[in-house]
Amino acid sequence: MLTLVALLLTAFASPAISCSESSWITFSRSCLGPPQVWEARPSPGKGIGVYATRVIEPGDTILSEPAMIHITPPEFRDGVAYPLGDINTLLQSSFDALSPEQKTEVMSLHAHMSPSEDANDTLMAIMRSNAYTTGNSLGLFPKGARINHSCRPSTSQYWNPQTGRRIVYANRRIEEGEEIFATYIPLLYSHEARQRRLDQYGFKCTCEACAQEQEARQASDQRRQDLQKAFVAFEPQLTLSVPQSVVGKRKARKNAEASVQLVEQLEEEGLADYYVKAYHIAAIAHARIEDWKPATLWANKGFETSLLADPNARSTGARELQALTNHLIIKWNEELRENMTRHG
């Protein structure tokens, strides 16, 4: 048993596979060098989409891409909109510095414009429709922009400031020929609220979550709203202090049960971006009732999952989960030794 516990310290690392930047030739064949991971081609009703050219396992890197346009907007102040004139100047300057081929690639991207917008503002519309936040900046990643939205995405992404690249990786197994999806919006909202958020991109989502029959969709909506409330409710209880009162202990046991339900509902909805947070909650909730085995297993699961986005465990969140796992392993080992002594 002690050997099993020690094994939890082994770092989890999935193979990372990415396409070389020079291999992007056309929208119909995006990765020509081995191994061929994905290709961009027409997606029914969605323009261009991105498809797996082989089975992609959880943690595999699908795309590692530097920003073609990267701007730092003026400091944002609550209640005051970004000065669009300043942003447009930065955007135009960055665009002007691109090669003709790069300009063509940028201008081929989707640009949702309202009827009141000037057709000359196409570049701004492209940026608004496709850019991602990169820390305090905004980045445009033309290849990744071809990945369509789903409310049950098969990928997650993160910005790596050390390499200056946006990494898109599989958060579940993706089959050969399957379209690859990302999310453009937060997902713990109802179907109706999500559709409103997507209006800024000029389309209505028809993903598997949104296309369900009404009864199933309503059940999904309820789960997502319950999950949102649960995360808020758990936030002030993320402490390792063990309750001493009878009432406190009873509440802690209920919270441990609720934390497992939280994980189960997230996994049922396929909302992988929230898994690490849920596993962390489950680990803390079980530690507060001194149930060290599940606490350790949940913490380690959270740490392993965090490594999908942060293979070198450089982020604060990954390091905290690693430290928590190590702490709980010690507690579990102490419990095992006590049990062995008691029954020896």
Automatic annotation (TrEMBL):
Keyword Signal included in the entry's annotation = yes
Record SMART domains: SET (SM00317)
Q: Does the keyword Signal apply?
A: yes
Superkingdom of the source species = Eukaryota
Record Pfam families: SET
* UniProt keyword list: Signal
SUPFAM superfamilies in the record: SET domain (SSF82199)
In this protein, which residues make up the domain named SET? 36-185
Signal peptide feature range: 1-18
Q: Write down what this protein is called.
A: SET domain-containing protein
Q: Which organism is it from?
A: Paraphaeosphaeria sporulosa
Q: What is the lineage of its organism?
A: Eukaryota, Fungi, Dikarya, Ascomycota, Pezizomycotina
